[in-house]
Amino acid sequence: MPNVLKHGPYRFYFFSNDGHEPPHVHVDRDDLSAKFWLNPVSLTHNYGFASHELTKVERIVENFNVQFLEAWNGYFGAGR
Q: 7: closest CA among 28, 35, 21?
């Protein structure tokens, strides 16, 4: 499970078997979790985050989108 970023209380990562899906990142805080597509940035799954916190997390994903895509492409290859 490659970790991509630790930002405040949030951990951003993807699973090593996620390469069959479009580029995305998972985010956890405590027992909360969400998944965002990266191109374009959009929420795909939410497991417990309140809407106001999702907005904050989505902004982080947007701000670090290039870093996330580089990590994804570096791990799975740019052709995914």
A: 28
